[in-house]
Write a structure and sequence with these properties.
Blueprint: E1 6-10, H1 17-27, E2 31-33, E3 36-38, E4 52-54, H2 57-65, E5 69-75, E6 78-83, H3 84-93, E7 96-100, H4 103-112, E8 117-122, H5 126-136, H6 144-154, H7 157-160, E9 165-168, H8 172-187, H9 190-200
Parallel strand pairs: 1-7, 1-8, 2-7, 3-4, 8-9
Antiparallel strand pairs: 3-6, 5-6
This protein binds adenosine-5'-diphosphate (ADP) and guanosine-5'-monophosphate (5GP).
Length: 201
Amino acid sequence: MRKGIAFIVSGPSGGGKTTLAKSMLHELDNLRFSVSCTTRKPREGEVDGKDYKFISEAEFEKMAQEGRFVEHALVHGNYYGTPVEEFEDAKASGVDLLLDIDVQGASQIKQSYPEAIFCFVMPPTFEILKDRLSRRNANGEIDIDQRLVRAKEEMAPSVLEQYDFIIINDQLDEALETIHSIIISTRCQSKRVLEKIKENL
Ligand code: ADP
Ligand code: 5GP
């Protein structure tokens, strides 16, 4: 059976990762969202086990100590981690996995699973990023200035060069077309198609 491909979608908060990921999951077959564990509290409308597995800090710490995360990181004051089984199950069952994770997590996965496909979602300008973060922050939950400082660090060339693809999310329809093309083209890479052809011989 073909091995599932892990698509890592990373980038600064407000860059558009969730928007792009949700649309791809809706549009494409054989693509599953990697449900992370987090210690942050659920937001309105979020479903436990679907958006995230919401767990306590003690549970998170225990899982981390037991080596049950492929990667984990402290992001804007909360812990987030990708469970090993989420990753391995998809790979073994031939389903492609979409991971919406921060740059620290992506860099950890680059060490352990360099064969994953690394996509960076980037806003066209800082002003636009600030504007998008402000619009999304209707309930004043987040510290926008802190996220903008962090975004500058995350978009440094030394970070960006670790990625296979950079998607500049200016016009949404164009960015959607770009990420769609990346996924389809990756699936068509000769080494992957050949694997399947050889199996059928
Ligand atoms: P992230 O998941 O990277 O934090 P989101 O997907 O939540 O970012 O996007 C941040 C905000 O910007 C959301 O309110 C979203 O609707 C909006 N947004 C995303 N992409 C675009 C775009 N291309 N043009 C305008 N607004 C966008
Ligand atoms: P939010 O709390 O807004 O859903 O996510 C905050 C940040 O955490 C986003 O940048 C998101 O990509 C990142 N994130 C979500 N899940 C994970 C994960 O499992 N690991 C890491 N490292 N980051 C994650």
